[in-house]
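User:
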Amino acid sequence: MPDHDASSNATASNDKAGSFGAVFLTTFTTVFLAELGDKTQLAALLLSAESGRPVLVFIGASLALISSSLVGVVLGRWLSRVLPPQQLERLAGILMIALGLWLGRQAAMSMFPLG
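Assistant: Predicted structure:
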């Protein structure tokens, strides 16, 4: 007769490993795609070209991205304890829309100056 506790522990362990992989892959893919072609990547490109020290630029840019990601993770963890998930999703959506509108306004102002 199989040991039920051993099989349920193995299943729980497999579920945890699957969720680790899924969370890691989703995070990596989302951040990687979001960072392609953004201001940070363009700044790193220019700094590397101007300085002629691509390894130092890579290290500096990597540490900056790690630091800003840490702020996001810590803030997200705190917010998840303070706000219910639906309210947190709504707040994130509103923030993304507001940032999009602000960036669109900045782009329009640079394309069509008022004076």
